[in-house]
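Troubleshooting log. The previous structure file for this entry was overwritten by mistake, so regenerating from the original sequence record. Sequence copied from the archived sheet and checked twice against the printout by T.R.
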Amino acid sequence: MRKSFYIAALGALGLTLASLGTPKNNVTKPLASTSAAYADTLTWKVLAQIDYKKKPTKDYPEGVMFPVINPTLKAKQGRPIVMSGFVIPIDEKSYALSKNVFASCFFCGKAGPESIVGIKLKNNGQKFKTDQYVTLQGTFRYNDTDVEDWIYHIENAVVVKK
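Regenerated output below.
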């Protein structure tokens, strides 16, 4: 009797396990474009790897410090990237992404110009709060010729995480 009970219990367990089938992986894989963009995530540490070279210009004959962009960033020119930081308002319509909050950004003397990235939003009407932490996806562009402009830019930027 006891042996029959164990055999019946094992049989029931076997049927239960067989009905479950093989476990399926329910994790949704990211789209190729999403995973490629996240593979190209830029960090503030990479942006900080920059040198400067003094050169005279028409407006500044005594010389101005021009950025010398590192090869890693040169390879990302015009490519999709993802980057996170604090939003800093520049005027009513323009924003920048900063490594630091407004009180510690380079305007206040706590960092260099490489710690901020100009943002050109795909949706120009979008509004942000000062120091709002966001993750943006867009096209990376560096500037090593115009000292009146940001060194780094994210163009066609969209918010992927608030």
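The beta strands are 51-55, 64-68, 80-89, 95-98, 116-121, 133-142, 152-161. Archived copy saved in two places this time.
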